[in-house]
Specification:
Elements lengths: L1 H6 L12 H6 L5 H6 L2 H4 L7 H12 L4 H7 L8 H13 L7 H7 L8 H14 L8 H7 L8 H15 L4 H6 L9 H14 L4 H10 L8 H16 L3 H6 L8 H14 L6 H6 L2 H10 L9
Helix pairs in contact: 13-14
Length: 302
């Protein structure tokens, strides 16, 4: 029931045409009238203001945790329901489906109080003019990275795009549809430090950039929780060479505890040698076949 009623909260930007006689006898349905007719509205805490009851019920019916949303975005407390409705209508006018909104707004409640003219619309203009995303592609990009909608075009998105293009990211489609999270990452505090870390462990700048271009996800990994422990295991236990990581930077994308360690130990215990990429990329079934088909490495007598 909640799901069905939730869909009725979204008002299409285009209102259906009607005859003068119809317009006099029929009032258009709004979010407020829908909420006031809901049984939960009448049993809400009487100490809560009418406006707040409307917003809480509206969020809950959309599948959004109202407590979390109000905590993350305190401005939502004073925002009018009409302004929230305007944001919902605007997003739908850009191709976002009603059933996309619970996830998008649940991840970024700040969108609900964003200014359409100065904050939301510039993001869609950036997608169109800078990333060359057609209007029918807006939904796909926003679903992939809702944080785009709460990012400043001038202070965040354009500087990030400029930096990434200088590094060699030329495929705008890949940036828009596959790795838009890079565009909402701080150049100064996220992107540059990770590039410098790769250089600090022995890769040249061109090698580090090449690794990132082959595996853009490297820019999303934590130095302390990903790079350092995995690099330590690679050097001390696998006893690999940096050249191996340069050729297969996707090594850092695999779980250390669930993939890298178990498979490396299995290979080592059987006295086998497998290329790093083959050891990690193969499915469980393929890995078992590799273990059966690969001959043990010859023992070298010293």
């Amino acid at each position: 029931m909640a799901a069905a009623l939730s869909s009725s909260l979204y008002i299409s930007p285009k209102k259906p045409s009607c005859t003068p006689q119809q317009s006099q006898s029929t009032k258009p349905t709004t979010i407020k009238t829908t909420l006031h007719s809901h049984p939960l509205f009448t049993v809400a805490d009487q100490a809560v203001t009418l406006q707040m009851k409307e917003k809480i019920l509206c969020l809950e019916l959309m599948g959004i945790d109202s407590g979390k949303a109000l905590s993350v975005n305190p401005f939502l407390r004073s925002a009018s329901l009409d302004s929230v409705e305007s944001v919902l209508n605007f997003l739908q006018s850009k191709g976002i489906y009603p059933n996309d909104l619970p996830r998008i707004l649940g991840m970024c409640p700040k969108i609900l109080t964003s200014d359409i003219r100065t904050e939301l619309n510039p993001v869609f203009m950036f997608l169109s003019s800078d990333l060359r995303v057609p209007e029918n592609g807006f939904r796909r990009v926003i679903k992939k990275c809702p944080r785009l909608l709460i990012s400043s075009v001038e202070d965040q998105l354009k500087p990030a795009l400029f930096y990434l293009q200088r590094l060699g990211f030329k495929d705008l489609d890949a940036l828009a549809y596959q790795d838009p999270v890079l565009l909402v990452s701080s150049v100064e505090h996220t992107l540059i430090p990770k590039l410098r870390f790769l250089e600090s462990v022995g890769f040249s700048r061109s090698e580090a950039i090449g690794m990132i271009l082959r595996c853009p996800a490297l820019f999303t990994f934590s130095i302390e929780n990903n790079f350092k422990p995995k690099l330590d295991y690679f050097m001390c236990e696998i006893k690999g060479k940096l050249e191996n990581l340069k050729e297969f930077p996707q090594y850092f994308a695999f779980s250390l505890e669930k993939r890298i360690k178990p498979r490396h130990l299995e290979v080592t215990e059987r006295g086998l040698e497998l290329p790093l990429a083959l050891m990690l990329k193969s499915t469980d079934e393929e890995f078992e076949q590799l273990l059966l088909q690969t001959k043990p490495s010859p023992v070298v007598n010293v």
